Amino acid sequence: MITKRTILTLGSASITLLGSFSICSNLPTTAAVNGQYRGIKLPYRAGQSREVTGTHNRAQGRRAIDFGMYKEDVLAIKGGVVRSATQDQYGGKYLLIDHGDNYCSIYLHLESFNVSFGQTVQQGQVIAKSGNTGLGRAYHLHLAVIQKLNGNCTANSSREIAMIFDEKPGGEIILKDKIVSQNRTTSNDTTFKNPGVSSLATITQQSVNLRVCASNLQGKTVYVRMYRDAVNGFRAKEWRNQSKVAPDTCVDFTNLDDLDNVGPTFSGVWYYTVASLTPIPDGEAAKKRTQCWSATGGKYLCDAVRR
After folding, report:
1. What are the tens digits of pLDDT across the range 75-103?
2. pTM to 2 decimals?
3. Which of 184, 185, 159, 28 is nearest to 103 (CA)?
4. C-alpha distances in angstroms, 182 versus 45, 49, 125, 267, 269?
């Protein structure tokens, strides 16, 4: 593992971002990224439209988009965890948000931050103010979704992926588009609601199974983390999973087995689970809680099981 410079192209200028993003030296930083990233909404308030002022060099695989936004609220295009809230001379003030899958979003040239490192945010939350910091030639928001490198969020523009916004589901946004946003924070996105809130972990020799229930799960994504301590010469481990719930009020995570092929579950060892309606930060399951929800509500459902 090394700390490596990453290349970011702003407009027609290619520059070097010095970052502390840990990557594997034998992975190509110019690998083509195919496919489309969906389930995102435009980064400005619902009911408003902003012109697309730049789409960067599509011939080189770039998929970043510039929105004409002058000192105004920037909204999270999808929920996640803030992995970087920093600045440099090129991108200015910028945010990296980990969406809990294999992708992260990056927001450049910001005037100021409304969130900080490690904070969990939800789709539609105000995360920053747009600006003209760094090498920006005018006030705007530079936005991209980037495939992780070795499991880490990076500012590597060669890994940008096509963004398909809910407001334009048929294809990518293009230059001069002015599309009305539907992005707004939903009040019940981060809290499990009654009735029937429950979390039940069970275990077999091969895997841990988890059932999560709540009245407000329909159409939402449920995120899960699982942790066990070091055992029998194997280091402590934390796993992650997620599932879209529709149309039921319960979701089953079956066969939460060892993703690194260590083997079946260990006898006499506790496995701790955490479920949430937003991506769960690293280390949350390692707190080893057996219950973290009450009748008044809660963001997480915690459980534990031992074979």
Report:
1. 999 988 999 999 988 899 999 999 988 89
2. 0.56
3. 159
4. 7, 10, 13, 49, 46
